[in-house]
Amino acid sequence: MKKRFKSFAFPLLPNWRVALLIGAITTISSVPVSAAENVERGKTLFKRCAICHQIGDGAKNKAGPVLTAVVGRLAASYEGYFYGKSIKAAGAKGLIWSKDQIFEYLPNPTKYLRSFLDMPRAKSKMRFKLKNEQDRSDIISYLATFSKQQKSQIELPVSEVGDTASTGRLCVTNTTLERLIFSVDANDAEMLTRPLDKNQILCVQTLHKSGVVRVFASLDAIEGCSKIVSTGIVHQMKSFGRFDNCEWLP
Fold first, then answer.
1. Domain boundaries, the chain
2. Distance in angstroms (rounded) separating the CA atoms of residues 40 and 235
3. How many CB atoms neighbour CB 195 within 10 A?
4. Which of 15, 92, 136, 205 could form a disulfide with 151 if both were Cys (CB 3.0 to 4.6 A apart)?
5. Secondary-structure percent of the chain, ordered helix, strand, coil, rounded to 5
6. pLDDT tens by residue, 121-180
7. Positive/negative CA dihedral, 10, 11, 14, 20
8. Quick one: what percent of the chain has pLDDT higher than 70?
9. Predicted TM-score (pTM) above 0.70
10. For residues 188 and 174, what is the distance between their CA atoms, to the nearest angstrom?
11. Is there a contact between 55 and 133 (Cβ–Cβ < 8 Å)?
């Protein structure tokens, strides 16, 4: 003889109690991960990257370039590494490795470069792809711990300079007809490198009264010119010439 089970009717809860119950369950099941945990997880995940890249003190170029201070760096600008044509073209176009750009690059480096350059035949030497969003975010958090924070770095047209030539800022501008690569080293911040077209200006904030600016015709050029610059003035490059044959105003 089959047993009969009594059916039970659960009392209906008021809407506000249902909302509280759902909220409590959601809170328990989605405990936030701290930034420190993200970095630690990124450090573990970076072992995949370490096959081709080194990072930290004493790092050297391997199959891929050194990734120390890569966050905020101009693409294809690490000294001594032989970059592919497409990534050098991206650097010449002004690609800066911000956290967002690295995040978009990692899932498919070649696809990213083709989109950025609008060149269907562009190709990345990096074949590794990282699709998982959380993995990408954590690795980038780890990379960022090796990048010095750059203070108030700005790029403005000369017409919008305003108070850029103020105490505490090193500023240079390109007044030539050529696109040139400018690097500003303020000593207390990561060296800032950007391609500048005519009438573009590059500034970096510093606690020092002077710094060094270096200018090259291209990212892979060895010879260029350099100048010790002081704060409070927008230093203008009048003409460019290799082997320190550059003219400046003032």
1. 35-144, 154-249
2. 43
3. 21
4. 205
5. 30, 20, 50
6. 999 999 999 999 999 999 999 999 987 543 333 343 333 333 444 457 788 888 898 889
7. negative
8. 76
9. no
10. 24
11. no
Residue 211 φ/ψ, nearest 5 degrees: -160, -170
Given 3.30.70.790, 1.20.58.340, 1.10.357.10, 1.10.760.10, which CATH number is that of 35-144?
1.10.760.10
CA distances from 37 to 40, 48, 136 (A): 5, 18, 14
Structure confidence at residue 193 (pLDDT): 82
What pLDDT, on the 0 to 100 scale, is given for residue 250?
A: 63
Distance of CA 52 to the CA centre of its chain: 19
The CATH classification of domain 154-249, taken from the options 3.30.1760, 2.40.50, 2.60.120, 2.60.40: 2.60.40
**Are the beta carbons of 92 and 179 closer than 8 angstroms?**
yes
pLDDT at 79: 80
Strand 180-185, strand 225-230: pairing: unpaired
Q: Does residue 89 have a pLDDT over 80? A: yes
- Residue that the structure tokens 């105003």 belong to: 249
Phi-psi region at 218: left, alpha or beta (left = phi > 0; alpha = psi -120 to 50): beta
Which is more confidently placed, 157 or 230? 230
Which of 20-24, 55-59, 105-109 shows the lowest per-residue confidence on average (mean pLDDT)?
20-24
Query: 159 — phi, psi (to 5°)?
Result: -65, -15
DSSP string of 188-205?
A: SSPPEEEEE-TTEEEEEE
Alpha helix segments (H runs only) across the chain? 15-29, 35-49, 85-92, 99-105, 109-117, 133-144
pLDDT at 167: 53
